[in-house]
Structure formats: C-alpha cells, structure tokens
Amino acid sequence: MSNDSNMQWGIERRLEFIDYLLYWDGKVNRRDIIETFGVSTPQASADIKRYQELAPHNLEYDKSKKYYFAPASFSPKFMKPDAEQYLSQLLNAQQNPESLIIEAPAYATLPNIRRTIDTGILKHIVRAIRDKQAIEIKYQSFSKPNPSWRWISPHALGFADKRWHCRAYCDNNQDFRDFVLSRILEVRHKKPAFLNPQDDKEWQTEVTLELSPNPNLSEEQQKAIARDYGMQNARLQISTKVALVHYFLYEYGLETDQIGEKQEIVLLNRVEIQAMQQQLRPTP
C-alpha cells in the first residue's frame, strides 16, 4: 500500500477494520492493523485500546495466542456485516490491495473469458461521448459477412451479456442501437454530433420487471428460490432500462413464455413489457 493510500486511512476506518476481522475471522491482533494500514506498533496498540473503550464487550485477549478474539457477546459497532460485500471482496482480494480480508477461505471461480477491447478505440468512444462527437468506425456486424464503415454518435456505455457496448445513434440505420466494443476495428474521422441523447427513448426509459419462482416447482423449491433471490411475498421487482431488457431476459432464460424444466424464475408482466418495448421502438 502506497504512502498516499496510508494517509487516507483514518482512525474510523481502522476501528471498522477491527470490527470486520472480529466478525468474519473471530480474532484480530496488532500485526493485522500494522500490515494493512502501514501504521506503527504504538498506533496499532492505541487503535485497539480505543476500540476497547468504545466497545468493551466486543473483544477479549488470549495471552497464549497473543490475539484478541470475539466473545459470544460480540456485536459489530462500526460496520454493518454484508454477505455480498464480503464475497465481492473475496472475489477481488488478489487484485485489490485495499481488501480487508486477512485469512481468505479456500475458494475457486470459473475462468472469465474476456473480450479484447482496443485501448485506443475505447479512448475515442469515451471522448466522443464526453465531447458529443460523431465518429466513423469500421464495425464487424454479425448480420453482414464483412466489416463496413459507418458513422455513429455514441452517448453512453453499457455492460450486458458479459460484454461492453456503446449505445449510439447509427447514421446507416437511422436509429439508436448497441455496438459491441470488441467489434469496433478502427476509428478514422470525427465531427460534431447533432443529436440529443434524450431522443433515445429505449435508453432513457426505465421499466420494472416482476419476477416470481417457477410455479411448476414444488412449494418448498419455490420457497428456496424466493430466499435465493431475496423475494418478498414470492415477488421480486427489478428496474432496468428498456434498452437492456432483452439482455436480462436472455441471461435468465426468460425470452419466451415457455417454462423450462430447470428454470428457477418466471416473468409475470411480459405483456406489459412487450407493449412498452413496442411503443418505444422507432418506426421504420
């Protein structure tokens, strides 16, 4: 951790760290604080003493093992435990030098096949969005066998279907659509973009998807799915942009009304969603 980063760590953050380790690991010692924050031994001792003053029932000292442990009376005082936060930190522990996890449990993840995005091309896209410019790109569409040049006016970036794309107005098709960043092969010209991102109705409009467990599952299985997804009364509402709805439905196998044998959730308001998509879709 750099000296600049060390300067950002205040006493509040270190007290939160002590809380964090006591909750997740059940123990903490001075070395944990020293190695994580780069502070001196006296400072680490002072931090633990301060924690004891503010939460006297939250830690006890084990002289034989030389660490403080969380007794049965422990209750976090400086942070709210969050399972998603912990697992997110675990997932990125090796790449994140500021991760709070000291003793990570054994874990494995599926390999992530990343699409290759040219840094220079991404720079042009980002600047075009910022400066409200149209750019001429060479794009490999899957509807045509060969790449072709076209003018687009990007106004936002999106991430869906495990890939990044830019949302842009396409001069060739005269509509707003998504362009996968890894399929943009070249950028050669630019000019002012005379468009208003507010005209992209599918991007600007939010829609709420109403989900519930697959009704073909057993009652206990449906309860398990409801718990998995944090549903209330067997219902879950997800808000997203209309332009991203088809990606969501594809990812969760909800493109059609047909309910698969292993499908966990179903879309309840499909008719409403389809009507909104049809209403906002540009007329050819």
UniProtKB/TrEMBL annotation:
Residues covered by the DNA-binding transcriptional repressor CapW winged helix-turn-helix domain: 11-90
Transmembrane segments: none
Domain WYL: 121-188
PROSITE patterns, A to Z: WYL
Stretches assigned to the DNA-binding transcriptional repressor CapW C-terminal dimerisation domain: 207-273
InterPro entries in the cross-refs: CapW-like, CapW_CTD, CBASS_pafABC_assoc_protein, WHD_CapW, WYL_dom
Protein name, as recorded: WYL domain-containing protein
Organism: Candidatus Thiocaldithrix dubininis
